[in-house]
Every structure is written in structure tokens, then in C-alpha cells.
Amino acid sequence: METIFNSLIRAFYLIVTLDKSFTEIVVLSFKVSGGALILASLIGLPLGAFMALKTFPLRNTLFGIVNALLGLPPVLVGLLLYLFLSRRGPLGFLSILYTPYAMVIAQSILAFPHVCAISASAIRGVNPNLKLLCKTLGATEFQTALTIIREARFGIITAVMAAFGRVISEVGAILIVGGNILGVTRVMTTAIVLETDKGDFELALALGIVLLSVSLIINTLVSKIQSRYVHLSQSERGFLQ
Amino acid sequence: MNSKYLSMCLFVIVAVACLTISTGNLSAETSIRCATTTSLQNSGLLDYILPLFKKKTGIRVDAVAVGTGAALEIGKRGDADFVFVHAKDLELKAVQEGYFTNRMEFMYNDFIIVGPSNDPAKIKGIKKASEGFDKISKSGSLFISRGDNSGTHVKELSIWKDSGIHPKGQPWYLEAGQGMSKTLRLASEKSAYTLTDRSTWLADKDKPELTLLLEKDATLINYYSVMAVNPQKNPAAKYTEAMEFINWVTSKEGTDAIREFKDKAGNQLFYIIEKH
Question: What is the pTM of this model?
Fold first, then answer.
């Protein structure tokens, strides 16, 4: 009990004084996960919108695949990416194994299904009468699509935030492809693993507190957005019917 | 919660992205990668000597700490420029296969057998490691093995071989598959015996409830070597810079730094092999 209490006090001290060993790791975490989120959104959002708005062959199969990928195990992503990026692997010429770039790629693979599947289902969930309304008002297909996506904006933001929550707290993949190198690829989760190993609980706890706060903030925002979304769509449904 | 608020959220995300892209490439300094063992990282030696080397040469060494077996694999694949490990037989085999070159065995510490303080197998006072292992197996007390093909694991298996016992699959023999500190913690929680290197044992801040029971057998000496990845096998390896480190760490300056390195309680953790 004494260990926990003492470590907690020292952990708060690290946070309050913005200790360099602590801030460096937090900043890198946000850079890596933020970068991964952008990459995943650049591919996942357009694909999600396309899947939701267009009918094409194998559309349901594609939905099935993306939904299945939601449960992709991070360590498997790490292992496969390691084999690809290793100098003996097919992408070895890039020589990015054990760099932040490899970590960004790993996390964007993990974030992509969340961004794509949740935004697609949000866009699909928009009241179908809206499409008819746009058409009667003489909108082109592109304008109609834009209007529908605009209606689904809360759902899309939820998708991006859910993906961020997944990657910022992920450890399996980035430990394998990042290597947990001090000052280069050591992020919050991998540092917690190492510091716990070393019995250095204060830094581990300080980083844990930051992680917990991040996920609390994200979840609060998501639930606020969702309640707003439900409220909005109800009023609009009334208008459209 | 209005759309202004939401666009602010989006703005923050975009800002983070720009930050990532603009500062993505850390800097243009030269860096080499070292695949090494958890004992050197967990004891704090690397954090002590790598900055000294950087100050001297400007070369940053990025250390990836895994077990010796895994470190050799990383080196064989060309994903590191040199290795800093401790399993002589595995090392010599890899050198013979042509994966590594310029092997220098220059530093040592020793292994010790630790266990619960009430010592149910009565190994305290025994001089030979293999005899101690024999007693542990006969008493049926738990023994935790690293089980990860690390240098410590390789040493442990050779001691079992000396004692003529096949521990694998026995109910009292548990394979952790974890680093040294985690294995010590596991042994502490389960009141079990285990083999550890002395530096990890001394440097561990959260002292497990174990006692040192057997030490100073000649077979328990733990030699560390550095060796460069052979550029003929892996042309991308930074051989010149790796050799610069190997030459430095085995020079007077490097070895003095290793001798000076102490744990929090002031114990010297690593010793240098004196040249004849």
C-alpha cells in the first residue's frame, strides 16, 4: 500500500513539474497517434463515405471485411509489419523499422477500420428521405452526397475519436515495430511496460494518469456528440416526414 | 456543443497532424542501432555509457533491448548495426555463419541463484550451481525459467545439463518467457527459485522478497561481448560507425566508464576482463 501511495505522490510531482523525461514521451505519443489518425482518416473517411453512398458489387462483403478488421489484434499487426519492414523483408529498403514512421504505419492500420466502419454506418444511418428531398430540390449527385455527409458529421467525428482512443492506448504493435528506444520510439504505453519491469513505478504511474485522462476526455466528447446527434436527427426526422 | 466547438476539435487534430509532419524527421545526426539484452537496459548501464559515447563522437546509439537470442536474430536480419550480448556459444555460431564480425568479449559480471528466504530446498552454503539445481528439483520447490532463449536462459539450461536433470515439462518448472526483472518479480510472488544476473538483481529498485542463496561458482561467470553486423551479409549495416562504438567501448575510456558505473546503492555492476 505504501508503495502505491509514495509512487502516486512522485507521479503527480513529475506531472506538475513537467519533468523532461515525462513530457518527451507524452509528446511523442501524441505525434505518433495523431499522425496515424490523419493517415487512417485520409483513406478511411473517403472509403467509408463511398461504401455508404454507392451500391457496387461485393459491397456487403467489403462491409463485412471492414467490420471484422475492427477486432484486428495489435500484436499481429506488429508481427506482420515487422516481417515486412525488416531489412530482410520486402519493404526493408525503406529502412524505417524501429523508427516513429513504422509506429505511425502500425497505428494507422489499427485506426483505419474504426474510422472507415463507424463513419460508413453513420452516413448510412442518415434519414433516406434526405436523399429524395435533395433530388426534388434539383441537387446533383455530388451535392446530394455532400449534404448527406454533412448530416452525418457527428458520427464521423465519433469515428475519428474512437480510432484515436484505440491507438493512443495500444502497446502490442508499436512495441514490436518501434523497439521502445529512449528518446526515439518510446511512447506512453511502451514506457509503462519498461518502467514497471524496472520497478520504477512513479514514471509509469504518471504516464498512466495521462493516458487515463486522455481516454476520459475522448469518451466524454464522444458521448456528448452522440447525444447531440440523436437530438438533431430526431428533430430533422420530424421535419422530413 | 455546437458546430463551432466541433470544428475546434477538428482543428486541434489537424494541428497535431501538421506538427507530426513538420517535426517528423527528428534531426540529421548520425545514429546506429544496437540490439542488446534487457539486463544492460534494466541495470541502467546503457543510459550511462551511450550519452558519453555520443558526446565524444556525435553518434547516437539507439538501443533495442530484448533477450540475447532475439538480439542476435535482429542483427542477423540486418535490423541492427551491432549487438551487445551474453551467450558465448550462440555468438560463436552466428560469427561462424558469417552474420557478425569483430567479436570482442570484454566485460563480465556473474549469475547468482536466488530464492525464497526460508530456502525450502536448503541450497544455501552449496558451492556448485549444478548441485544447487539438483537440490531444488529434488525438493520440488518451484523454479522459474526465463524460457526466452536469452543469455541467462542459455546459461540456466547448461547448468541443468551439468546436473543431469531434464526440467522441461516438470510441474515445478515454470517458463516465464519474460525479461529478467519480470522473472524476478514472478519468482518473488510465487516464492520460487530462479537464476539471475547480479546486475539486474542489484539494480532492481522494487526489491522482490527473495534472498541471494548461491554464488561464486566458476560456471556462473557471465561474459558480455560486442560484435558488428557483417556488412558482407547485410550491406545496409553501418559498419564504420559500429566499429567506432566497439573500439570506444573496449578502449580505456569506455572500460573506465563501465567500471565507474554504479547502482543506487553504490555497487559496481560490471567488470572488465583484464588483458594478459
Answer: 0.82
